Amino acid sequence: MPDESDFHSDAGAPLRRVLCLCAQWCDTCREYRAVFDEVGAAHPQLQFVWIDIEDQADLVGDVEVETFPTLLIADDAALRFFGPLTPQPQTLARLLEGLALQGPGISAAPEVQALLDGVLAAMPTQTEHAKSP
């Protein structure tokens, strides 16, 4: 799991999480990690989380990842996006900007919702984060 330095939120607002599902053996994933971290640094109000689908297989559960990188973006438990993304910083930045204009979340397949619920359960709440050193 990520350490608490990966957590960013504004008090009282839904916490938008940007989860990248990748694998250490994947060259594209290893290269994309720097892009993901760069975009995350530019958006400190969001929580960027890197999930290795093999090292954290218990968290990923039944979600099948066929294309890397695959992103899951959610506002708390409300799914906003789930799918593969081309590995350029501009693509992720445009997606995040576009999602800011959308209304309520979208329906998630049961296995995707289970992944999101598992991530929510495994991470500190905004209040817990605020108390962290």
TrEMBL record:
Annotated source species: Rhodoferax sediminis
Protein's UniProt name: Thioredoxin
Pfam families given in the database record: Thioredoxin
Domain Thioredoxin residues, every copy: 20-76
Domain of life: Bacteria
